[in-house]
Amino acid sequence: MSDTIIILPGGERFRLEWRQSDPERWERRLKAKYDESRKAARADKARCLCRHRGAVLPLQIRYRADSDTYHLAVWPNEGPLHEKTCPFYKPDPGKSGRAGYVSGVIREEEDGDVSVTLSIGLRRKGPPQPVDETPLPAPDRRGRARQRRMSPLGLLNLLWERAGLAEWKPQFARHRTIPAALGRVASAGTRIRTQKRPLSDLLCPVAPDHEGFARRLHAIVRAEGKENHLFLAGFVDAIEPGHGSDFTLTLNGQRNGYRCFLTLPAAERNRLVRSHRLAVSTLALPEPERRARVAALLYVTAQHITKPDSRWKGWIQAEVRTAALMTVSPEMIPVESGYELAVAEALVATDRTFEKPLRFDAGEELVFPDFILQDTVRSAGYPMEVFGRTDEAYMARRAEKEDYYNTTFGAGGWWSWDATARTSIPAFPPARNRGTP
């Protein structure tokens, strides 16, 4: 957020970070420009640096009478047009698994931050509150929002989405390194709140050769006393048998200065095997054969080892209480199958611009595309679907998807690949000319 520049009416440059660092200046400048922005033409109103089809995206300067304060807000229905990393970006819930949450689970604030209701209670000391697994009533129609809380997997999806890692543009090539991706995740955590606190208070990325992240992990653990609970974000290298019935989980870069042991109880490991089959099968491959990576969000209990007679004094012992895994392409694009991975790699190789709608905690009854091409002549994007199974239940599901796409986008208005036919990936819809707005 510290790098977000706002252009006020008249061309004055304004920093969004002043909302926290210099609130008096923030209020004074917004108040001074309030009437001018209301009367200005669209292109001359307050705005961020985002553009859509070459045009600026204005912001509103609003006055809140109950608190006598001013703030910036996105214009109705224009949140999805902002860049994914812009604080004023608001995803279209109908294009992803966000639609599976009931109202209030994800609350988009006017200032661009987002508040979420998690399925776990974030307590720093003592045992964490358990995941609420109360069964929900069956929906009365397919696709109805039914999730009342966000799981760690949903939170991992939200961090990825807010970090801009679920989209790809050709200019991103060579910039999607693990440290860079996790730096974006850390930044996204500052704009997510849960249980009245920024997620960043408890979020520690683990990346290779990143002294700042390592120092942050130890500082948080030391500050919280003997035991505390926090989130670790990183990429899994291995899950291996440990002492007794437990397992050890190793994150990429964990051995580079983090001085941290991660224990994974057998019960949680077994749950991950059942719930994240693609990720687990990816980790089972020898590293040279892995085309994909496995991102992880771990909710852990951590403490410093302080026993004088321990050879590991000064290390952190952490136990994974619950975790979420997500398979991503080498460019960090989330995928749900090997076929999707092949399509994502082909799109990158042909310099296409696209996004991956994320499932969050939605059930299979919700229909949304596997990918959306953003560089065709269709301004709303070009939906893409990969069909990868032939069992009876899946074929019934496929028929529903085909009917939905034909009804919504028209026959021929969407792209698909029947991977079960063992054919090569079909040609993608043509990109618009580079000079086309």
Can you describe what's shown?
It comes from Komagataeibacter xylinus (Gluconacetobacter xylinus). 24% of the residues lie in helices and 25% in strands. The protein has three domains: 77 residues, no CATH class; 177 residues, OB fold (Dihydrolipoamide Acetyltransferase, E2P) (Beta Barrel), CATH 2.40.50.140; 84 residues. The chain has 437 residues and is α+β, with helices and mostly antiparallel strands. It has a five-stranded mixed β-sheet with strand order 8-17-18-19-20, with helices on one face. Strands 12-13-14-16-15 form a five-stranded mixed beta barrel, surrounded by five helices. The two termini are 28 Å apart. The chain is globular and about 70 Å long.
Give a brief description.
By secondary structure, this protein is an alpha+beta fold. It contains 9 helices and 20 strands.
The CATH architecture of the largest domain is: Beta Barrel
Could you tell me the number of beta strands? 20
Domain module tally: 3
Q: Helical proportion?
A: 10-25%
Compute the average pLDDT.
Answer: 87
So what's the CATH class of the largest domain? Mainly Beta
Through-space gap between termini: 28 Å
Gross morphology is: globular
CATH fold category name of the largest domain: OB fold (Dihydrolipoamide Acetyltransferase, E2P)
Using the CA coordinates, give the radius of gyration: 23 Å
Give the biggest sheet.
5 strands, mixed
DSSP helical segment count = 9
Q: List segments where confidence is low: pLDDT < 50 over at least 5 consecutive residues.
A: 124-142
Strand fraction: 15-25%
Read across the widest sheet, the strand sequence of neighbours is: 8-17-18-19-20
CATH superfamily of the largest domain: Nucleic acid-binding proteins
Overall SS class: alpha+beta
Pattern of helices and strands: EEHHEEEEEHEHEEEHEEEHHEEHEEEHE
